[in-house]
Amino acid sequence: MMNPIFIVLPILTLLMFELGLELNIRDFTLFRYRPRPVIAGLIGQIILLPLLAILLGSLFHLDALFFIGLLLIACSPGGSSSNIFSMLAQGDVALSVSLTALSSVITLFTIPLILGWATQMTGSHTGTFIQLPIGALVMQNLILTLLPIGLGLLFKAKFPEKAEKIKRKLHQISFPALLLLAGVFFIQHYKTIAAHIGQLGICIILLIALAMFSGILLSRLMHLQRREKRTIVIEIGMQNAAQGIAIASSPLIFNNSTIAIPSILYALFMNLILLTYIKTVKK
Q: In the prediction, which pLDDT does 128 show?
């Protein structure tokens, strides 16, 4: 059986390179000029989403591997497709790009901390001890996340016209590439997914719905504009599933396809729910 890591690695690299093509240096400094929406987005994504995953995973008594997988997707950075979704929702695209970039950098540090705690906690409570090589996790995320983003930024600075053309092409193929990944993963693991789709599926749908609701509450607390609110809801609800699958499937880290199942289900439900949200807010 082919390891999905050989599909997800090029897809994740392309998605991160595409994000780099979207970015400008000022996207990392938006906080100085518009702190409230940036704070709202980062609180929702970096703090609230993992807490919601811990709460739901405990309430649903998920198996240890699914619990770690759920927490993995919850503490992953925002997905690069959120920028497109924000545009479709007539949201604040500049804010979306900034939040995706900032979360991609911040989670380089938070993912090892959260997953390190999760593996120790599940081991002490269930007896299922899962090794998490922190060094390999950090190195893989640097190579697959930060490096392609940096290369995209550099390429855009050197060849702006070519970068714009490549960006448009990547916009067209990124979503079909994720669907290909999902299809391959389902074919390989359909028995496990079918056996747990009820409990795990409901848990993931609730996680996405509560994340989006948290975005609405944070936007109201911060007195954000309508366009900012739509972007915050999308950013908190849309995670980088490709990175979650890469970490779960990597021979250097977990090397466990079961841990990747929550990420692939999250990707499917996330797109369906957020497309419905976009259709609703645009009426």
A: 58
Show the domains of the chain with their CATH numbers. 5-281 (1.20.1530.20)
CA-nearest of 206, 209, 199, 216 to 261 is 199
pLDDT at residue 124 in the model: 56
Strand partners, 104: none
Low-confidence ranges of the chain (pLDDT < 70): 1-5, 27-28, 123-129, 283
pLDDT value for 123: 66
pTM for this prediction: 0.87
pLDDT of residue 249: 84
